[in-house]
Amino acid sequence: MIQMYHVEMRYPGETYGLRDVSVSIKRGEFVFLTGPSGAGKTTLLRLLFGAEHPSMGQIVVAGRNVSRLSSASIPELRRQIGVIFQDFKLLSERTVFENVGITLEIAGLPRRELRARTWSMLRRLGLGHRLDHRPRTLSGGEQQRVAIARALVNDPPLLLADEPTGNLDPDLALDIMDIIADAHARGTTVIVATHDPGLLERYPHRRIVLDNGRLVMDRRPDAFPTPAPQVVWPVS
Amino acid sequence: MDRHRLRRLMSALRSGIRGIRATPLIFALSVSSMAAGLLLLGTYLLVVQNMRAVIERFGHELRVVAFLKPSVRPEPASLDALRVRFEALDGVSRVRFVSKGQALENLRADLGREASILEGLERNPLPASFEIELASESRSPGAVGALAARIAESEEIDEVRYGEDWVQGYARILRAVVWLGAGLGAFLMLLLGTIVAGTVRLALYARTDEIQIQRLVGAGGLFVRLPFYLEGALQGAVAAAVALAVLYGLFQLGLPIVGDLLAFMLGRSAPAFFGAGEIALLFVMGVGLGLGGAVLSLLRLEEAP
Predict the structure, then answer these.
(1) CB–CB of A78 and B22 under 8 A?
(2) Is residue A89 part of a domain?
(3) Residue of chain B with shortest Cα separation from A156
(4) What is the predicted ipTM?
């Protein structure tokens, strides 16, 4: 699903977002991208959905070379990727239904199909009673569920989540992670950026660890000792 | 265009309408400032249109009068020869001879009750003349001047008159108005374009989050831009409609007040409002301005992220 070859992301002033990162993620995998704040987790995710272009190296996502993709081709790539953020990024003036339906609207689905799929996705995530609510009237957990619904409603083969539980209390965080795990169980390739050791402990998935832009560890579940290692990152 | 693309297009249009409804104040602000500019432009166009109409109307009544020298004997053969020569000139449609006696009769008729002042005359002081009517292509101040100059070259002709002072003076005023209007028009267009670009940019800032999210879920450049183009074009059309309505109202209200003055300036016919062509032109200008402003303000909007 994803191949990165010697990817470097350099910003003006010789600061590095990523340095010589090579990684391969198979279709259907669940990967935690972890490391301290500023390690390059968000940069890596942004590179994957074409929000930034690497300074060096090649990135292939679902058969497309993202590093060479023209601006006009990026929308097509993004319709194959669901993205979730820590701050939800919901449209405050639109209803829950509209916030989720926008993905299908942009994909050009007929209105009837759009309504059916949006309603079905919201019901699956326990938001069937919130269709006409505005995001500001919802709890944090509900808002994140709306964001997940928006990301998943188009059945994307790849889901990227950048600190999806960062703004939520532990119970809600587990609730959100269960939804993401469910999407993975349905066949979606999932990459979750987090520095929450609780999540890493609870979900024994592959971990790619970044530090200061470098890949410092890539450990698969079968390599974990029992119990899974405790990882605690300093948060700046 | 495939069905997905068409649906995306329709979604973009719906998004534009939603955007207008979400920021009605920005829309109203933009429409009112554009309408004010278009009203100025429309007023100017209306003035020029009516001035042109006067020139045209005057042209229809325009004729050249060539007075014969007193020494020319009014013999039918020589008068006929002169008439044929004048008729052969470019831009002449008809030539009529007015004898000294006919000229005096005409003057007497024009004077009406005051005609008694002519009774003391010992001899007819009026010269014989040729009244030369002009072909439609020669009814412009420049053409009539050139024709008058050619007629004046005839040695039998003493003097040629065609109301040159009035025609040339009026043409000068019209030229000045047109030039002034061209400058004013260009300035207004620039001003209006900047206003629209500014308000579209305001709308753009107001919808930054929406654009970011649209792009995140795979909206292409056109999907993002189209609502703003639609908004700009709609602003222009509404502003043109408002400007035309206000201009028509002012025209109808003001006509009775300045009617006498206008009747004096414009002659017998009343000033006219725009026809369908000019109304369509103002609409096209409004829509074009709105679209142009939107395109201008979105030039720097990057395709990604």
Answers:
(1) no
(2) no
(3) B217
(4) 0.81
Strand pairing class (A30-34; A206-211): parallel
Chain A (7-46) residues lying within 8 Å, Cβ to Cβ, of chain B: 46
> What are the two backbone dihedrals, phi and then psi, of residue B160, each rounded to the nearest 5 degrees?
-120, 130
Q: Do A174 and A115 belong to one domain? A: no
Which residue type, as a one-letter code, is found at position B238?
V
* Residue A87 within any structural domain of the chain: no
Chain A residues with beta carbon closer than 8 angstroms to that of B303: 71-72, 74
pLDDT digits (tens, 9 = 90+) for A6-34: 999 998 877 888 999 999 999 999 999 99
| B63: nearest Cα among B156, B135, B118 | B135
Domains of chain B and CATH, by start: 3-58+168-298 (no CATH), 63-161 (3.30.70.3040)
Instruction: Give the DSSP per-residue string, B38-85.
Output: HHHHHHHHHHHHHHHHHHHHHHHH-EEEEEEPTTS---HHHHHHHHHH
Which residue segment(s) compose the domain that A200 sits in? 2-80+156-222
Write out chain B residues lying below 8 Å of A83, CB-based: 216-217
> What's residue A5's pLDDT?
93
Provide the token pair at A31. 């990967």
Is residue A228 domain-resident? no
